[in-house]
Every structure is written in structure tokens, then in C-alpha cells.
Amino acid sequence: MKVSDILRVKGGTLYTASPDDSLLKAVETMNHFDIGSLAIMEHGDLVGMLTFREVIQNLATNGGSLGSSTVRKVMDDHPMSCTPETELDQVRPMMIERHCRYMPVMDSRMLMGVISFYDVAKAVVDAQNFENKMLKAYIRDWPGEDEATAEAPAKG
Question: Which residues of 7-46 are buried (b: 16+ CB within 10 A; e: fewer)?
């Protein structure tokens, strides 16, 4: 499975901010859309990522206040990225190794989307569930979940 498969299911909505936006405005956007990251764009290019990790680090540094920081001062200006053609088996270790919960998907210099660790985990679970279903269908006379429950002896 490739990253493009996740993007196809996820849809094309991108949430972005400018590096010169106030951190407060960015946090309000993240809260409003219930998202954990913003792609930071400048002149059509991805220049960073802002995630709840950077926000929390800023809060800890400033005694619980967002202060008057701009996104540029807080964002990760060297986010790890992948391409739509990257295999999920390559993405998982990359995300785990860098404790990365959000990863921009780039096609050359164009931002195609952002995938989350949740998106990757869900895709893996969905693929495993599909494979299990196909294997059960392949095995003759495999009881379905309802049949297995109905045939199970009563406890007592």
C-alpha cells in the first residue's frame, strides 16, 4: 500500500497557515477544525509544520502562555516528508524513529496532503481486516462471527 492510497481515502482538504501568522491564530485554527497540525506555506512552498508538539513546547517555555510568538518562531522548519509513491512499510519506521505524528506528502515541491500516524495505523488495520476476511472466505466452511457465537456452547 502506498501513501497515495491514504490520501485518496482521506480526501484533499489541506489546513495551512503562514509563517507570519500569530501562534494564537494558528492554535485557534487547529482548535476550530479539530486538527493536530498545520502545513506552513510561504509563496506556495512548504516551509514548515506546526503541530501540537511545538505548541506545547512553546507553552512550557513561556509559562503556559502563547505569548506574541509567530508561527515562524515555533514551527518545525525541517519537517520529514514522503511522496505519494512511498510505501507504508517505509513510512511507519520513519514516523516511529522521529516520533513524528504528522508527515507532509510532497510531489516534487507541491504539497499533496498531510498524513497522520493515525491515518497510517488505520490503513494498516483496514488492510489486515480485509486480508483476514479474504482468508476466511477462502477456507471452506469457516464460521462467520455470528455463526461462531451461535454455535459456541453456553457457559454455566
Answer: beebeeeebbbbbebbbeebbebbeeeebbbbbbbeeeeb
Q: Which residues contact 142 (CB under 8 A, 6 or more apart)?
A: 136
Q: Distance from CA of residue 134 to its chain's centroid?
A: 27
| pTM score above 0.70 | yes
Instruction: Give 117: exposed, middle or buried? Use CB within 10 Å, 0-12, 13-18, 19+.
Output: middle
DSSP 8-state class, residue 1: -
CATH class of 3-141: alpha beta
| Dist. CA 74–CA 20, nearest whole Å | 11
pLDDT tens per residue, range 86-135: 999 999 999 999 999 999 999 999 999 999 999 998 888 888 787 788 78
Domain spans in the chain, listed from the N-terminal domain onward: 3-141
